[in-house]
């Protein structure tokens, strides 16, 4: 009885050995199947390798392509099932692979490979930065497979700036001026890389944009003319334009260079306003004059109508600087409405020009000081002329008392504006004095810089008091 169990075990082992001998080597007993359902994305000029997988059947397996085609640059290894190589062109490729086992059992699978274009840095230039000002500029990328990782391949960024690895943004606040040259690298999700050399300049803060051309030389009919307008400050490049009035016939303004050039075709005085704008959208304007003479010196030179020229200046100032001061709208309406008397009209016109010069044209303090010194010097050099003008104003005021009352009412009304009164008191605007062939023009005499009056100043003040007493 003790030997029966041992015999039973021997019988089972013998049956297993018989069955094992009947199954081919490598057989699993499962049907042959391709388990690879999708393939990774490839990239032009980037190494690619994907292994096809199968299960069941009897190993070894043999792989082949039975339909379609692989992307250019890739091949299929028949024994290992590895698709490898370096794609040479972007696009999608659809194909069918077949696997055959040792017993010639076969099965197929439809697959596709998408090949992306090579990764590339899209940013080739960077805008300049400003010292101690916030800076932010995102680098761009094309091709490849997201997500991307940015890094600095060589060189250094300006002091205070950093490169964000995930977003590719160069940002920060630079604390030193200068130009930095560096190379950035971008790496995509499948290892594709691209680099780009860049330069970034940090400049000092731009100064206020100012037109430095105060007057233009005379031109002659029939003779070529060329004069460059100049400006300081702002962020180059600058753009010039004509915003009011018109240039003499035959001349034009180059918007890029600021050069007024051409050949004048008619004599006369032109009044116009030019504006300059920088790349940061800052702008400023200035009223200018140009006298065009007759080229024939034997004929009488054209006489300038001072009143007409004065009106031209006022109209241009109202056109360019109507929003420069709260009082400008009222003043310009009064002046253009012909509601003022003979005394009030030139006074209001001078106030308009003064406000336009102060608020719209943004003349620098040094230029304004020099200009006022010239006016005071010229007025003091001809005290008698100033007295004569004062007497004429008094005579006209007495003859037109109603007009003076209108002026008083207008001034009282407009004095509600914060700086209108001081604008009237300090008005030093005058007609252009570039043509020494014409008559002297009116200038108001102001205090010297040391605060003292000269004898001519005292005479003018005395005349003004007499006029008020007469009223």
Give a written overview of the molecule:
The structure is a single chain. This protein is an alpha+beta fold and 471 residues long. It folds into four domains: 33-116, Immunoglobulins (Immunoglobulin-like), CATH 2.60.40.10; 120-203, Immunoglobulins (Immunoglobulin-like, Sandwich), CATH 2.60.40; 206-302, Immunoglobulin-like (Sandwich), CATH 2.60.40.10; 322-471, no CATH class. Helices cover 28% and strands 29% of the residues. It has nine helices and 27 strands. It has helices at residues 4-22, 306-321, 328-336, 344-360, 365-380, 383-399, 401-414, 420-425, 455-470; strands spanning 33-34, 42-43, 48-51, 54-55, 62-68, 74-76, 82-85, 91-100, 106-116, 120-121, 129-130, 134-138, 141-142, 149-155, 161-163, 169-173, 178-187, 193-203, 210-211, 219-220, 225-228, 231-232, 239-245, 251-253, 259-262, 268-277, 283-293. It has a four-stranded mixed beta sheet with strand order 2-9-8-5, with no helix packed on it. A four-stranded mixed beta sheet has the order 11-18-17-14, with no helix packed on it. A four-stranded mixed beta sheet has the order 20-27-26-23, covered by helices on one side.
């Amino acid at each position: 009885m003790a030997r029966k169990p041992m015999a039973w075990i021997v019988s089972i082992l013998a049956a297993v050995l018989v069955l094992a001998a009947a199954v081919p080597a490598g057989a699993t007993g499962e049907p042959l199947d391709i388990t690879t359902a999708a393939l990774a994305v490839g990239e032009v000029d980037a190494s690619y390798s994907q292994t096809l997988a199968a299960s069941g059947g009897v190993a070894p397996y043999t792989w082949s392509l039975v339909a379609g085609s692989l992307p250019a640059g890739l091949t299929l290894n028949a024994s290992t099932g590895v698709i490898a190589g370096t794609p040479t062109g972007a696009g999608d490729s659809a194909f069918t692979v077949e696997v055959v086992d040792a017993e010639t059992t076969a099965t197929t699978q439809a697959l596709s490979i998408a090949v992306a274009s090579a990764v590339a840095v899209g940013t080739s230039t960077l805008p300049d930065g400003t010292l101690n000002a916030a800076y932010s500029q995102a680098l761009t990328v094309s091709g490849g497979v997201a997500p991307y990782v940015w890094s600095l391949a060589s060189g250094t960024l300006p002091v205070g700036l950093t490169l964000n690895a995930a977003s590719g943004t160069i940002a920060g606040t630079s604390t030193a001026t200068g130009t930095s040259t560096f190379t950035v690298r971008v790496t995509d999700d499948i290892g594709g890389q691209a680099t780009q050399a860049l330069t970034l300049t940090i400049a000092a803060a731009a100064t206020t944009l100012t037109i430095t051309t105060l007057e233009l030389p005379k031109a002659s009919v029939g003779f070529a003319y060329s004069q460059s307008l100049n400006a300081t400050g702002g962020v180059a490049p600058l753009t010039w334009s004509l915003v009011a009035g018109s240039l003499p016939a035959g001349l034009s303004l180059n918007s890029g260079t600021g050069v007024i050039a051409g050949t004048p075709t008619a004599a006369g005085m032109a009044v116009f306003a030019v504006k300059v704008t920088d790349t940061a959208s800052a702008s400023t304007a200035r009223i200018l004059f140009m006298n065009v003479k007759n080229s024939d010196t034997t004929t009488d030179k054209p006489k300038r109508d001072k009143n007409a020229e004065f009106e031209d200046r006022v109209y241009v100032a109202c056109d360019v600087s109507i929003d420069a001061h709260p009082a400008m709208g009222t003043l310009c309406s009064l002046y253009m409405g012909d509601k003022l008397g003979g005394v009030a009209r030139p006074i209001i016109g001078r106030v308009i020009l003064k406000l336009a010069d102060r608020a719209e044209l943004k003349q620098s303090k040094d230029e304004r000081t020099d200009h006022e010194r010239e006016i005071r010097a010229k007025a003091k050099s001809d005290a008698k002329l100033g007295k004569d003008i004062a007497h004429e104003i008094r005579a006209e005021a007495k003859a037109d008392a109603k007009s003076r009352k209108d002026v008083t009412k207008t001034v009282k009304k407009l004095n509600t504006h914060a700086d209108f009164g001081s604008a009237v008191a300090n008005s030093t605007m005058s007609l252009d004095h570039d043509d020494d062939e014409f008559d002297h023009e009116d200038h108001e005499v102001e205090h010297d810089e040391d605060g003292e009056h000269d004898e001519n100043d005292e005479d003018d003040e005395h005349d003004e008091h007499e006029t008020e007493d007469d009223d």
